[in-house]
Amino acid sequence: MTEDIASRRAARGRLGWRINAVGLIGLAVVVFWAFVAIFGPMLAPYPVSEIVDFDYFGGMSAQFWLGTDYLGRDMLTRILYGARYTVGISLAAVMLACFIGVTMGMVAATVGGWFDAVLSRAIDALGCVPNLLLSLVIVAAVGSSIPVLILTLAAIYSCGAFRFARALAVNVNTADYVKVARARGERLPYLIREEIFPNIIGPVMADFGLRFVFIVLLLSGLSFLGLGVQPPNADWGGLVRENISGLALGAPAVLMPSIAIASLTISVNMLIDNLPTRIRDRSE
């Protein structure tokens, strides 16, 4: 029995990785923005709020690589600082959302019965409210701060993570090895930790990447509406909002933050679309 369990755990731990050139490009861009989010403020050529040019909406030059904003501040510096808010808040929110949603989904699928029905209907009711509308109501009522943004985004997207994880866990819960574990008298924490979660981790990681993209876009939308990261700080959505009047001029100050948002979200999609993770069947 012990050898059988050990062999099944070893089989479960073997992952198949495949990645092509498109996935490598996506990975490179994601790693680049992660590096910028961590070390960007150290690399910034100017203080983030310092007015360094008397020409507002200045063009790109050898001195100002990405031009200047509506006050004459260096846009490269602003984008480097903004990456920490966009990437950091989105990553914290998606980690919290997936932890809550996936855990609740696995518990509901494993327990079943009235508990699963009540919890699923409650999540469905919350998920019926449009994400942007719900986030606007919460942030407007509570106030905009980084903890509030993280908790709001996590609460909104935990509903989708719950439904996704529950659908996967329901299928795994009917497998023979789970029935054997129940017959041995294993309790709920063991079933979730050792039997359910290891067999859904691949799709869950892909869903994690997609929800990260959704959260980046929703956070940028909130900041564009003035309810996201508040001045003097700014994420990329806030930078677009600050400099929107330069759009008619084709100013880099409004184009570059938009390109940063697009490059991050597209590269994450490229990565998760071309990095499928396969977990071997427990019967192998």
Automatic annotation (TrEMBL):
Protein keywords: Cell membrane, Membrane, Transmembrane, Transmembrane helix, Transport
SUPFAM superfamilies listed in its UniProt record: MetI-like
Primary localization class, coarse: membrane
PROSITE patterns the UniProt entry points to: ABC_TM1 (PS50928)
Domain ABC transmembrane type-1: 83-272
Record's bilayer topology term: Multi-pass membrane protein
Highest taxon of source: Bacteria
Cellular location(s): Cell membrane
Membrane-crossing residue ranges in chain numbering: 21-44, 56-73, 85-112, 132-157, 208-229, 249-272
One matching Pfam family: OppC_N
PANTHER family with a match to the protein in the record: OLIGOPEPTIDE TRANSPORT SYSTEM PERMEASE PROTEIN APPC, PEPTIDE ABC TRANSPORTER PERMEASE PROTEIN
Family named by the database record: Belongs to the binding-protein-dependent transport system permease family.
Protein name: Peptide/nickel transport system permease protein
